[in-house]
Write the structure tokens for this entry.
Amino acid sequence: IYLISVSRTLEPTAHLARQLQFVYTQLVSILTRKGLEHVFKRKHGFDLRNLLGNSGEQVLSHLVGAMDGHKLASSLPLHTSMSFVLGAPWCARLPLPLRNQVNKALLSVKSQHLIYAVLLAKNQLVQFVRPRKTALWAEDLLLIINLVNSSSSFRESEGTWTPLCLPLYSPDANVFAYICYLHKHGAPDVCLVLVASSDNEFFTLSASKDSVAESLVAAGVLAKIQTCAHKPPFVIEVLQQPPTSLSKDVLHFIYFSTAMNQFVAPGLTAPYTHAKSQQRLMRHYQSLAFWLHRQHRSQRMLVVASDSQTMVAWVDRDVELYLALSPLATRASALAACSRILKWIKKEEQSLFITPQMW
């Protein structure tokens, strides 16, 4: 398969290549690697649209839009695009006691053929559970999130049973996903995805869905998760107040935990309330990430100043921190801002990040 990208966005080549890699893995998730190889061995130049059908094309189209979600025509948030730049999900913020209730509900539906249980609030990851000896790779998780958000039919259904391939779990075989939005329980933007290794688990997983939803309602958690779907985890103004007292030169930031493969970021406020300004911010973040990961770079800090803003990247062993500051910010003030953000993240990390739960 040859994948070609034609772009006028001035994105770094490495990021365009990464997007093409996601398109390929999404193709594999629909048809499996073995299926793709079999088709092209039988007939070179075969038009894959004949196999993908409308639903498959819709999934791919949504993926392309999600990876470039800051475009003027898109309603997807910048954070969705950053998920694909970083290769990591955007996490919903939830107080630890409430997240523990979610964990308890998901862990309670363990069954012989259940591989993963994933709870989403729109594009935000709320929690997931996996077997002790089976990883859930971030790239596979992003493909699940894209699939769920690609079609309104999932929202309208009482529960959808669909085969899919998770390329990093097993590229040549399908698993089976039960996808259900919990609108009957007052949470129309919260989706539960249960992934099984057997195609005979529909009724078992349907009962498991009811059990999870009832547990979340009884614990008073589901309504709060529904709220997460309509607001960012936090806004920058919260950190600019005591006791954190972050400088008002800081306009936005992204904190990426490379150890957990998750990231958090504040909601977009002034001066990033318009599509064009969000587009510029996205391009700056992409460029920072590109330069930060170039070969033979040894610096822990990268500063790029312009007339409109100062962009900073700071990296440590398990952390990448990207900041957008006012154009008058200095290197010293940027370092001070990094320090304050890191301290705040450390204090709030149990609500900001997800600790994988295992059966």
Residues 121 and 227 are 9 Å apart (CA to CA). The mean pLDDT is 91. The first helix runs from residue 13 to 31. The first strand starts at residue 114 and ends at 121.
